[in-house]
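Board notes (copied after class):
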Amino acid sequence: MQKPFIWDRYSDQPYPIKDKVYKKKMRKKHIFDYIPLILTNLIIFPLSIVLMKFFKGKKIDKENFYGMGVDLDKGDIQIKLIEELGVKHILMRMPLWEMDRIDEYVDFAKKFKNQTTLLNILQDREHIEDIELLQKNIKSVFEKFSPIVTEYQIGNAINRTKWGFFSMGEYLKWYQTIQSIRDENHPTLKLIGSSVIDFEYHYTIRTLFNGFPIKYDKFSSLLYVDRRGSPSNTQMGIFDTKNKIDMIYSLVKLSQKTSNEIYITEVNWPLSGTAPYAPTSELECVSEEDYAKFMLEYLETAKKSDKIQRVYWHQLIATGYGLVDDRDNTIRKTPAFYEFKKASSIA
């Protein structure tokens, strides 16, 4: 990543942008994108709430419900741990700013011989602004990974400026460029979007109702809940995890830009006492015991809804929020690791 975007290797995400002048300039540049965002929300938001309890889910394949995030830099120990968990599906990130390491990423994906891989293509500002560079590197990603990977999540946390996008219109244009390359060169590959993080429905609506010639083969959401507590806690009065899922499902049913299949591709709780690895402040952190309890509640709610095809937990090894703590070069499985293993084995 190039400045002002800086990667935080502790929490596996970009640092917030500290250059306020640059941030203000870029937001001003994209200010007109708020017009379609507001207009679509005025219509779609109330409609989706009215209809969300009328749309019924369909029977999902519970044996393929559980997924797990892995990371190249966390090492080959993950292969054994994934096998122990009994997980059949993994999510792996491919940062476009690390194209010089693409062969390492391909080799790592090949090591998971009993799992299918969802490749999350991570954006950076350079690949958003330089279309020719994007086209060149996306062609390379598809060519190198397509023998072993059929599903690609296009972008990540697109509603956070620290990840590179300053409007949803900018993301939609970026997705369209990648979709065009897929259509021309690898038409059987599946593209997944729009990867909005948290329950920021207004951004989700903008990416589902627009004039761009795009289509998500499956829809992805980084659906976090109240990080201070249980998945049954609410936002905006009524939106606990169940109602958030109902709302998102209502939106995909109403939209012509996506199939009705939904992946939750990132969720976790931050762990207390793990700074600087925790992705939030200590105020939002929970104990390992509460983490395990909340995780099970979340997974059960999503599974029972019959509206979520798969949940990819984020992630296997991560001191501040994962199932395994690898500080001091040791592997310590948290209580959540064993609970996840138990849940996936009786799916």
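Comment from the instructor: The chain has one domain: 7-345. The longest strand covers residues 190-197.
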